[in-house]
UniProtKB/TrEMBL annotation:
It comes from Marinomonas hwangdonensis. Keywords: Activator, DNA-binding, Transcription, Transcription regulation. Gene3D superfamilies: Homeodomain-like. PANTHER family: ARAC SUBFAMILY (PTHR46796:SF6), HTH-TYPE TRANSCRIPTIONAL ACTIVATOR RHAS-RELATED (PTHR46796). GO terms for molecular function: DNA-binding transcription factor activity; sequence-specific DNA binding. SMART domains: HTH_ARAC. Residues 219-319 form the HTH araC/xylS-type domain. InterPro entries: AraC-bd_2, AraC_XylS_family_regulators, Homeodomain-like_sf, HTH-like, HTH_AraC, HTH_AraC-typ_CS. This is AraC family transcriptional regulator. Pfam families: AraC_binding_2, HTH_18.
Length: 320
């Protein structure tokens, strides 16, 4: 399964398990490593491969000895883990799950568990940032509980879902291809993977009873921005106005305008300002109106204005 996956992304080969553990802590997920059988060995058939692809973390891990991992917090990321060799046991507070080759599960953020590897265990791990999970919920009008999205603790057989298995294999091989460096070429793989995860694992989200809820929230945000366009509008302020989270504010602007709230507010200020210069005959001074709209750095203001409208604000005033 996943033959030669990430073969061009080897970070460690025959390294001490602690070296692998330290790298994992910095790039994949926080944990504490407990090991016994390797203390007096000088040879470690261990290996770690790691590569970022489509803003996902892709890893293949083999410690080369029996080790136990204590994992207390994944820090706002999800792990999709597949056992490819040997076996691995997840011990939760109330249950344990033993996975063998071809079996996989989802790990949620902020879960406490102990993970025991057999000496020949090898796993593939896909690290998925929480923001992409939330984005799909927003796109599909799913209600996100206050506890966040939690996937069912269930073992799946990848051989019974050949389409999903082929997708993971394709992602691992594409990540090996140095020619695919552009995010716009990579992101469709990520989006499809996340949709497949929602199909494979039950979770605590549900479709919103009002499919227009996100659109109504966004309309509220736009109305507030336009009504207070000369003010310094913060992201938390917008979240409070619409009674949503800061992350949802970002998600809404990404969904509707493919932009950040901050960039959208600046562009909207510039549009209002330009309209006022063009139509208000009382305006004689570009500097004063720029300050009225909160543009304190006049050189940067002129540069942004010209980039957006292909002319300087003074030229707009002169044309009027």
């Amino acid at each position: 399964m996943f033959i030669n996956a990430l073969s061009n992304a080897v970070v460690f080969n025959q390294a001490h398990p602690l070296e692998i553990s330290n790298y994992i802590n910095n790039h994949i997920g926080h944990h504490t490593l407990v090991y016994e059988s390797v203390k007096n060995c000088n040879y470690y058939p261990s290996q770690l491969k790691h590569r970022n692809f489509a803003e996902l973390g892709l890893s293949s891990i083999r410690y080369g000895s029996e080790v136990k991992i204590h994992c207390a917090d994944l820090n706002d990321v999800y792990h999709f883990q597949v056992v490819t060799h040997g076996q691995c046991c997840w011990q939760f507070e109330e249950e344990s799950l033993l996975l063998k080759p071809g079996q996989a599960l989802m790990m949620n953020p902020h879960e406490n568990m102990d993970i025991s590897y057999s000496a020949d265990c090898e796993k593939v791990i896909v690290k998925v940032p929480q923001i992409f999970i939330d984005d799909l919920c927003l796109e599909q009008n799913r209600d996100i509980p206050s506890s966040g999205v939690l996937f069912e603790r269930k073992v799946i057989e990848l051989n019974k879902s050949l389409g999903f298995l082929s997708l993971i294999d394709a992602i691992l091989h594409e990540a090996n291809d140095s020619e695919i460096d552009f995010l716009q070429l990579q992101s469709p793989y990520r989006n499809l993977l996340i949709r497949k995860l929602f199909q494979q694992f039950d979770n605590n989200t549900q479709n919103s009873q009002d499919p227009e809820l996100s659109d109504r929230c966004f309309t509220t945000l736009l109305q507030y921005i336009n009504s207070n366009i000369k003010q310094d509008i913060g992201i938390e302020e917008l979240a409070n106005v619409a009674h949503i989270s800061v992350r949802t504010v970002y998600n809404l602007f990404a969904k509707h305008y493919h932009n950040t709230p901050k960039a959208f507010i600046k562009q909207t200020k510039l549009k209002h300002l330009r309209k006022e210069i063009a139509l208000n005959s009382d305006i004689r001074n570009v500097t004063q109106i720029a300050l009225d709209y909160g543009f304190m750095h006049l050189g940067r203001f002129s540069s942004d204005y010209k980039k957006m409208f292909s002319e300087l604000p003074s030229e707009t005033l002169k044309r009027r």
